[in-house]
Amino acid sequence: MPLWLRLYRRPLLAGDLTAGVVVAMMMIPQGMAYALVAGLPPVAGIYASILPPVLYALFGSSMTQSVGPMAIVSLMTAAALAPLADPGSALYVTLAAQLALISGALLLLCGVLRLGFLAGFLSRPVISGFSNGAAIVIVVGQVPALLGARPPQWHAPSALLGLGSLLLLWLAKRYGGALLRRCGCGAAAAETGARMAPMLLVLGATALVAALDLAGAGVHTTGHVPSGLPSLGLVASAGHWRALLSPALLIAFIVFLMSMSAAQTLAHKRGEKLLTNRELLGLGAANLASAVSGGFPVTGSMSRSAVNFSAGANTPLASVVTAALLALALVAPTGWLALLPLPVLAATIVFAVAGMLDMATLRQAWRYDRSDALALLATTAGVLLLGVEAGVVIGVLLSMGALIWRASRPHIAVLGRIAGSEHFRNIERYAGETLPAILVLRVDAGLFFGNVDAVGARIDEEVRARPDTRALVLVLSAVNQIDTTALSGLQEWNRGLAARGVALHLAEVKGPVMDRLKHSTLLQELSGPVYLSTALACDDLARRAPPLHGRAQGGALP
Amino acid sequence: MPLWLRLYRRPLLAGDLTAGVVVAMMMIPQGMAYALVAGLPPVAGIYASILPPVLYALFGSSMTQSVGPMAIVSLMTAAALAPLADPGSALYVTLAAQLALISGALLLLCGVLRLGFLAGFLSRPVISGFSNGAAIVIVVGQVPALLGARPPQWHAPSALLGLGSLLLLWLAKRYGGALLRRCGCGAAAAETGARMAPMLLVLGATALVAALDLAGAGVHTTGHVPSGLPSLGLVASAGHWRALLSPALLIAFIVFLMSMSAAQTLAHKRGEKLLTNRELLGLGAANLASAVSGGFPVTGSMSRSAVNFSAGANTPLASVVTAALLALALVAPTGWLALLPLPVLAATIVFAVAGMLDMATLRQAWRYDRSDALALLATTAGVLLLGVEAGVVIGVLLSMGALIWRASRPHIAVLGRIAGSEHFRNIERYAGETLPAILVLRVDAGLFFGNVDAVGARIDEEVRARPDTRALVLVLSAVNQIDTTALSGLQEWNRGLAARGVALHLAEVKGPVMDRLKHSTLLQELSGPVYLSTALACDDLARRAPPLHGRAQGGALP
């Protein structure tokens, strides 16, 4: 039993019930709309909104996350399946579930292996650039449904319904809250009430289609929506496992990333703590549940979770309430849904997704760090020009490039002794005393393959700049780890420096690092002891040093 | 004109001439053998050894690197072309050159964009694991040529030639040097002389085939080797640009990696300095030259460069001499080469590549850092089970995972004041005085997307552990950069801490970081000034602080 359920107290119930109902009202049109984005029949969106949030409630760690269909993940689903099957075909539906299955299994695997730190793969500007690109692709993709025909053509009744809906949604967002407040609603209730606009719009539009027989006039509708709960079970296409693996990997990554950024924003607001690896388990379980109940890949949605949060959700019970209401909706007669006009659903998609467009991050990055802004724009351009999957890869590559670039520039300080003390500080910042024969360098980063070349180059530079150097003391007080590549580096530096008449010494090596080094041959290769402190090293070396002019000449070539 | 040529002095000539001749003798059998590994006619290997080293001599930065065909890159060429054309076909030859063209263009592009730091993408154990896997694949691939038939069958005369050659090569390596020394050679000359064994073997075996008509007995030979220099010009298949792009990217990466590790080892020995981005330009130019002269992807070879080095090469002139000799060999009658027995060439490949197997790194890593050893083995397994291209990708992913993991664990210290001073030091290592209401944290790494979550979590943890905290001073003395993601993080921490009654303050912010921050809204959002020193911050906060019990209560949920 999850912790929140064991600790559940009566006073939390009211908030959870309200939020559950509110989110259910939001979820019905949204689920159907995002199923359409994924190229699936609308009912699949409802299926994907029942079991997944319940499983997430059992295994996830966020109190207010709402798991279900989400625009960007639906777009990626469509991109993954497009080369493999025709939208609407039975194979397509099977492959969508299979994609959720593989993504879910990958997420679970990452959770078990505690790979949550991989969320650090992408910087925030890159995530923003990716979301913006995906939002534009989705909006452009909905234009034909919105107009009832592929532009430049359009079908007048459909276009009227679609564009009219957009206008109504905009009005509801702009003035709905104020109107409700004037009618006596509290501020929070008014805000929440305004969020019901898509559901009311869908109900109204469906009634309009029925009343005016707009379907007869050529307005496309969702058509027959099967009644009843989804049948449980797994249908998979044996021939497609391999083809689905790499899109599933990208989808799992984006599922995790989108869910984490939504959950984190809300957790910050209430001082809650998210457990990254638990999130992976929760999302993995949710996707497996989606796979066995006729759904497709799901994730936490920022917009829906924010509604859940502001409608008063205290625990994941709110999501369970939502799921129960959606199940009820399927058990109730669904015949009326057949007349739901697609232009109106397209309008809800366009409106919701346009709201995801984030210009603030671009503006901030442009002013603050131009390279971050360029990474953002490059990722957006990648999504628009090369597709959503290539966009993820470009984002990862840009972020990784930045990571390596940063790792390859560790902070290294030349130290000098503060007069009359045993303290050694950076001579760029303090008036420290140095000896011509003894160079003291402090490396302020763990030594590993990503910075070992840079550190070696810096050592080389500092030694060349001080031709009188006979001893180099590396102060490792800030070095928490030395990996195998860096160990080889230390051995090479030791040999290279010795050939130039400079002895390498280590000082202030941390306990765990020292334990490791004892398993290598480095300590025997060094010409002196490992010193406990920099002061001890310098005193000892100053005592031992032969006269300056006796040193071996270096072997550097022109 | 390159620097080495402008500074060229007469005394360097003898060494360069000797090394040039020695390497040419090594290059003829090796070039033909590695062309066979790539699935190409042997003469392509000679073509790829003429112009590329000359271009590298003009643009590269290593003094002793020998650029030309190399086993692993040939294997990758074969893997890239296998799905696209039949080995030996005209299309195959065209695509091999096209692959060199794209790889060369990518290398040049990386050089112009100064992306040399990307070599840090792979850790040394992962490179070793990749090389080992590739070596095993190459050896296994040569077994049919060695035996003259696909095992379990074998062709007796071929197998005798092949296995006999292996034995001779082993004897030459084991005893050749000692024998030559006993005959009066100097140590260096003897070592170099022993390296001529493959060439002598090839000459002897060819003579044997001619004398005994072994070709008539069913021993496969290289067949007609066209005489004359390669014709210059570019033939490309318009339909294959896209298919070649991703293998070319992997090949360019491995070309750079293999060349750098060879050049670096030798540069270390003589205290020379390599210019990473110049290496990219040199290798890019070499591959373009290979593409327009009937070759295939080339790189610096560790084994050949080591021979060049120990045979006395002082400058890239040695490589130019080698190239000139190979060109001469092509202009001279090449009829005799037609009888060169393939089992003997296979033996030279197996012998050379088996020598590349590196168990020392595995042994060292296993003792020193088990996770590095596992990464090495996983990369080898990836190459063996999934192929050489997947092996590169696995290696990059493993290295990147390690990089992110390390980046996500920055060193953070709680500081205390050294009694009676203005120094603040890590309280885990020094007896520092702390105040209950003021928490002082020093972050020893630049703040960026890869560690911002980890730093946030650590701040949260430290503040929770000290519920009396009213002010948090972040000491940024070691923070060289704050990227856009980290800026957002600081803003979120500031808001989150304020909601819990804790004021966030910054101290010792570096000049360039401060300049950036002035372009953001962070400084206005903070509740106090940015302090020049930690001591000033603590003195000021201790003075300003309201009584402890007056602080606002935190809003943390259960």
Automatic annotation (TrEMBL), chains A, B:
<dbReference type="InterPro" id="IPR036513">
    <property type="entry name" value="STAS_dom_sf"/>
</dbReference>
<feature type="transmembrane region" description="Helical">
    <location>
        <begin position="12"/>
        <end position="28"/>
    </location>
</feature>
<feature type="transmembrane region" description="Helical">
    <location>
        <begin position="91"/>
        <end position="117"/>
    </location>
</feature>
<feature type="transmembrane region" description="Helical">
    <location>
        <begin position="154"/>
        <end position="172"/>
    </location>
</feature>
<keyword id="KW-0472">Membrane</keyword>
<feature type="transmembrane region" description="Helical">
    <location>
        <begin position="239"/>
        <end position="259"/>
    </location>
</feature>
<feature type="transmembrane region" description="Helical">
    <location>
        <begin position="34"/>
        <end position="59"/>
    </location>
</feature>
<feature type="transmembrane region" description="Helical">
    <location>
        <begin position="66"/>
        <end position="85"/>
    </location>
</feature>
<feature type="transmembrane region" description="Helical">
    <location>
        <begin position="129"/>
        <end position="148"/>
    </location>
</feature>
<feature type="domain" description="STAS">
    <location>
        <begin position="428"/>
        <end position="527"/>
    </location>
</feature>
<keyword id="KW-1133">Transmembrane helix</keyword>
<feature type="transmembrane region" description="Helical">
    <location>
        <begin position="311"/>
        <end position="331"/>
    </location>
</feature>
<dbReference type="Pfam" id="PF01740">
    <property type="entry name" value="STAS"/>
</dbReference>
<dbReference type="InterPro" id="IPR011547">
    <property type="entry name" value="SLC26A/SulP_dom"/>
</dbReference>
<dbReference type="InterPro" id="IPR002645">
    <property type="entry name" value="STAS_dom"/>
</dbReference>
<keyword id="KW-0812">Transmembrane</keyword>
<feature type="transmembrane region" description="Helical">
    <location>
        <begin position="377"/>
        <end position="405"/>
    </location>
</feature>
<protein>
    <submittedName>
        <fullName>SulP family inorganic anion transporter</fullName>
    </submittedName>
</protein>
<dbReference type="Pfam" id="PF00916">
    <property type="entry name" value="Sulfate_transp"/>
</dbReference>
<dbReference type="InterPro" id="IPR001902">
    <property type="entry name" value="SLC26A/SulP_fam"/>
</dbReference>
<feature type="transmembrane region" description="Helical">
    <location>
        <begin position="338"/>
        <end position="357"/>
    </location>
</feature>
<feature type="transmembrane region" description="Helical">
    <location>
        <begin position="200"/>
        <end position="219"/>
    </location>
</feature>
